[in-house]
Write a structure and sequence with these properties.
Blueprint (H helix, E strand, L loop, with lengths): L8 H31 L10 E2 L1 E6 L2 E6 L2 E2 L11 E8 L8 E5 L2 E2 L1 E6 L2 E5 L15 E5 L7 E10 L7 E2 L2 E5 H39 L4 H18 L10 H8 L2 H15 L13 H12 L2 H34 L2 H24 L11 H88 L5 H20 L7 H16 L5 E6 L13 H20 L5 E11 L2 E10 L17 H16 L3 E7 L2 E7 L13
Parallel strand pairs: 14-15
Antiparallel strand pairs: 1-13, 2-3, 2-5, 4-12, 5-11, 6-10, 6-13, 7-12, 8-9, 8-11, 15-16, 16-18, 17-18
């Protein structure tokens, strides 16, 4: 495929500016949608049950206030503000239970009706977190209510880091108020728990991924961030000093450290590099941890408010910039989805800061932690998308690999077929060459002798003997071409018949002995030319015994021997004739030149088959011992 032509610099800058504008417009639309959704308030109970006129006693002064109300102090545990008001109850409502419903407060409340405490949120640590937005409802015992006005007192406990806040209070029938309480509980309590559980699962998955892929630290960083997030979500804020209150405070205020982990993960996950001074990202979080170890609860709250919260905002802005750069550079779905989630979280964080500064009259409902779930979903979607893309790449690679393997297999099959054909042709040519050589050495010489005798005019026995020798050699060649399956005993059986016929006119007895039950071992690699060499060697030994030894009995012994290297066969031809002396090179000293040449041929044939020929001759006879190899050679070049 031809490469795409590079765009000119000006056109490339225009394209980049166009993409940046489109991405920015999408994020602005998301921010506007967030503002619109957050501006919508949750349904409120009927106004007839609203109690918002109270007298408050705070710091030694008493004055009238209208709820919702912000206190003047962020720490008022020893002298908590006291709100006193009244609500009207009629005896006609006696058939229905009445409750006091508090939509929002921080940090803790104690509610009393007609001087009797019916609710203390400090007994429910999950309700004491400012970012939980947890509502409370308490049923008023019927014995406490009386006709007309009833006193309602609310004591607000504030332990920072924000100033105390008390939202409007409702006193009315429990069946009327409880649906609103359950609705708020679903949004601000149940959903965060569900998302925290998803965050815990994501932490486990990321930890496993990091353990398997240690060379990708991004997964380990995100796993650490998710673990801190789970700890922050489930740990309660202790209203007083306890054994684990300091540890809880450190973990709850570790949001800057969690943000640093998320920022670093996004940087590495989206293809960035670790900056030179990247460790400074974790400095604010570590500072808060140090303050938590050595400071008191008030100091921890102050540092979190003035150091931790701005750090989170700064990291959100940096995260938005990193993701925007990745969207423009990579153009992938994961970066775009993550950028939209960061915009949602940043919009909610800005709204929470306006609430902290009391600029946005929103009843101090904090949604940044709740919106953090959008970032979790985006991260999960990005990881899933990248995993699915990796699977698609693996599948595509596997498909290409299968195609290439099939093509290579077809080529190998074709090459193997060609090589097999060449090998078959070469083997056939080699066998033809060997056959021609054997015919030339044996039958050719006999035919030449017949021609020479006939030309000299000789007739009778010489020509007949030469013709019979030629016929014998021809039968030998033909028999050796039979497929005997590596069983040399079949070839020796045919040779035995010819040897018996050869010895009969000379009145020589053939004693055939198979010492081993199986005779000789089977040689799968045995070839016809091996058989020819062995049979001719035995013919030569038999001929020497008939012509030169004047033997009356010839004994052929066949056996299978075993040693440490394996099994091998052995063939011995022994006669009882006249022996002869041997020279140092194994030649016959007392025989003629033709016989000596025959002995040399026997040794040469044995060597070409990889066998060993031993010749022992005494006054009582001669023994020719042929020790076969454990494996016959593939080429007769071994004897060269």
């Amino acid at each position: 495929m031809a490469a795409k032509p590079a765009l000119p610099g000006r056109q490339r800058r225009r394209l980049r500016a166009s993409r940046l504008t489109q991405y920015a417009l999408v994020q602005v639309l998301i921010a506007i949608a967030c503002v619109f959704v957050l501006h919508q308030s949750l349904p409120q109970p009927p106004a007839g049950y609203l109690v918002n006129a109270f007298n408050t006693k705070e710091g030694g002064t008493e004055r009238g206030v209208t709820l919702p109300h912000y206190t003047s102090s962020r720490f008022s545990m020893n002298d908590p503000p006291l709100y006193s008001g009244q609500f009207v109850w009629s005896s006609s409502e006696a058939q229905r239970a009445w409750s006091v419903y508090l939509p929002r407060f921080n940090n803790g409340v104690e509610v009393a009706v007609n001087g009797v405490v019916i609710l203390d949120s400090r007994r429910d640590p999950a309700a004491n977190r400012p970012d939980r937005n947890a509502p409370e409802i308490a049923v008023i015992p019927a014995s406490l209510l009386h006709e007309g006005e009833n006193n309602l007192a609310v004591r607000l406990f504030v332990w920072g880091p924000l100033t105390g806040f008390l939202d409007s209070i409702y006193a009315g029938p429990d069946p009327v108020l409880r649906p609103y309480y359950e609705q708020r509980t679903l949004v601000f309590v149940t959903l965060p728990v569900v998302f925290s559980a998803w965050q815990a699962i994501l932490a486990v998955i990321l930890t496993i991924m990091w353990a398997v892929r240690r060379h990708e630290p991004a997964y380990g960083l995100l796993a650490a961030a998710m673990t801190l997030g789970v700890a922050q979500a489930f740990l309660p804020t202790a209203a007083d000093q306890s054994q684990y209150s300091r540890l809880n405070a450190i973990l709850i205020t570790s949001a800057p450290l969690e943000s640093g982990f998320v920022l670093t993960f996004a940087m590495l996950f989206l293809g960035g590099r670790w900056p030179r001074y990247g460790a400074l990202i974790f400095a604010p979080g570590l500072l808060l941890v140090a303050v938590g170890l050595f400071g008191d609860q008030a100091l921890i709250s102050e540092f979190f408010l003035f150091v931790g919260v701005p750090t989170i905002g700064l990291y959100l802005v940096l995260l938005a910039l990193i993701v925007a750069r990745s969207v423009l550079k990579r153009h992938d779905v994961a970066s775009f989805v993550l950028g939209c989630a960061v915009t949602i979280v940043l919009s909610c964080w800005i709204r929470d800061m306006l609430s902290v500064l009391q600029i946005a009259p929103d009843g101090r409902i904090f949604v940044a932690r709740l919106s953090y779930s959008a970032l979790l979903v985006a991260i999960g979607a990005g990881l899933t998308w990248r995993f699915a893309r990796a699977l698609n790449q693996v599948d595509g690679f596997a498909a290409r690999l299968v195609t290439q393997v099939r093509q290579a297999e077809d080529k190998l099959k074709a090459s193997f077929a060609r090589e097999e054909e060449r090998a078959r042709a070469a083997a056939l040519a080699l066998e033809r060459t060997r056959l021609m050589r054997d015919l030339h050495d044996g039958l050719g010489g006999q035919l030449v002798s017949i021609v020479a005798l006939s030309e000299r005019g000789e007739a009778g026995a010489p020509i007949g003997e030469a013709a019979r020798a030629a016929l014998k050699d021809l039968r030998l060649v033909i028999d050796s071409m039979d497929d005997i399956g590596g069983d040399l005993m079949l070839a020796l059986g045919s040779w035995r018949e010819r040897a018996t016929a050869q010895l009969r006119p000379h009145d020589i007895a053939l004693d055939w002995r198979a010492v081993s039950p199986q005779g000789l071992p089977v040689y799968p690699e045995l070839r016809p030319w091996h058989v020819i060499q062995i049979v001719r060697l035995l013919d030569e030994a038999l001929t020497n015994a008939v012509k030169h030894a004047r033997a009356r009995r010839i004994m052929v012994t066949i056996e299978t021997l075993t040693d440490a290297s394996g099994v091998y066969g052995c063939i011995s031809v022994e006669d009882d004739g006249n022996g002869f002396a041997l020279t140092g090179d194994g030649a016959a000293a007392a025989l003629g030149q033709k016989a000596a040449r025959g002995l040399r041929n026997m040794r040469s044939r044995a060597a070409r088959c990889g066998a060993v020929l031993d010749l022992v001759s005494t006054a009582g006879g001669t023994r020719v011992r042929l020790t076969l190899p454990r494996r016959f050679p593939d080429s007769d070049a071994a004897g060269a």
